[in-house]
Amino acid sequence: MFGSALHFARCIVISRLWAGLLFSTLWFVQPVLALETELQIVRFPENEDIELNMLPTRRVPEASMRAKVDFEQGQIRIELDYRNMKPAVLFGGDVTCYVVWAVNRDGTAENLGELWVRPERPNDRVRFSTGQRSFALLVTAESYFQVDRPSEVVIFQNAASTNPRAPSEGVLFSLFAEPPAIGIPSLETVRYDGRKPLDVVQAERVLEIARRMEADQYAESLFNDASLRLEQATVMAQHSQSRAGAQDYARRSVASSNEAIRLTLRRKEAEALDRQIAERQQQMQQLEQRAAQAEQEAAELAQAKAAAEQAIASAKTELDQMAAEKERLEIAMADLRQKQQSLVESMKSLEADRARIEREKAIVEDRLQGALSQVAETRDSARGFILSLPDILFDVDQATLKPEARVVLAKLTGILLILPDLNVRIEGHTDSTGSASYNMRLSQQRADSVFNFLAEQGLSSQRMKAVGYGMERPIADNSTREGRQRNRRVEIIIAEGDIQEAG
Known about the structure:
Blueprint (H helix, E strand, L loop, with lengths): L1 H16 L19 E7 L5 E8 L7 E9 L2 E9 L13 E7 L5 E7 L8 E7 L3 E9 L11 E5 L9 E6 L24 H15 L2 H4 L1 H20 L3 H72 L4 H57 L1 E5 L2 E7 L12 H15 L4 E8 L6 H21 L7 E5 L12 H7 L1 E8 L7
Parallel strand pairs: 13-14
Antiparallel strand pairs: 1-8, 1-10, 2-3, 2-9, 3-4, 4-7, 5-6, 5-8, 8-9, 11-12, 12-15, 13-15
């Protein structure tokens, strides 16, 4: 009973830690906090391009942006076209990047990825994707791009839709995270002098943020890799004519710093979780001790009652002694009834605790399914939760993961790292195009790519298994284009214990 209760308590604590950990420094100017902002939630129709005007804030008054959104085959594709944008690192302080968000009606914000603005390309076009259908677009300035919630440093947000086929609705949003420290409130008059590549400046700043968060202790390997890449970028920027080489090493440093920050936050969350679990375990031990003490008192009272009855039988020959014994027994019986009542109340309290823990377990399971649904298309089955990665997340006829696939899998890793009781089975599938041996090899390679990426994120390989089925298990008709596209997939099954192969 104790072990089961401890497991449920662990799940409860996990749900409370999902708010995440963010940091801020205080020696730069802090922006005014936007406690509540009205966002325009747009419902996008299928098979139609919707254009939205993106409204800039006073932080980037010279910049402009438009968004084009289309919904096709269950996937939203977003194209952002911006003009006169300046890199986020020019804000100074702890700001290093822009992040694009999709915010839905309940306040959930999905991180769509970094909006990378280069000084040599102030006018550019970038693309993102999401599984949501109704959302508002938001661009914020952040300390690092793998944040869980948008900061209050808003750069752009979409205007209301003017297309009657894509109605919009104003919704108040207040679930902002604490803003990063910011050096200047607006980029209107800021100019880049070009003495040091901004990609290198960004890499230096993110690495310093990671150091302040103790990533050099909690994610030493990733931190050291980020430091090495930064050194290589700095050397190339000083001694090489190749701007692209310095830029490439700087971006690798930024990516490693972000991974180090993410892993540090997760490990700090795990430490806090272990402390709370230990406290809960101590409380449960105290409850067990109280129950054992109550049982001992009940046994002692039963013995006292037997002794009293024996005394009454032996005292019948002497009336005076019988009266005294009777009075003593009445007092003892009253005390016995009082203690028995106390024991009953204690048992009722234990039953109430057990029922409450069962309810909390059900809540945690619902939240887990909700969290997985935010990562990718998810369905429940007898084998466990099944996440489906479509073929578009891989290069054509390749097993290389695209960046958007890495974002999805990184989010999934964050969930699995704090749920050590869950195991993962990765199953690759193809359509019937090509030979059976080629499809079997491609499906295995794609399953292995997902396996290796999850392992790189810190997930134990003992918890995972990767299997390729080639074209043996289609879920749609291979004679149609749509059917073949559905058959090209990688499915991730998440459950406790040994995950069986599908029948």
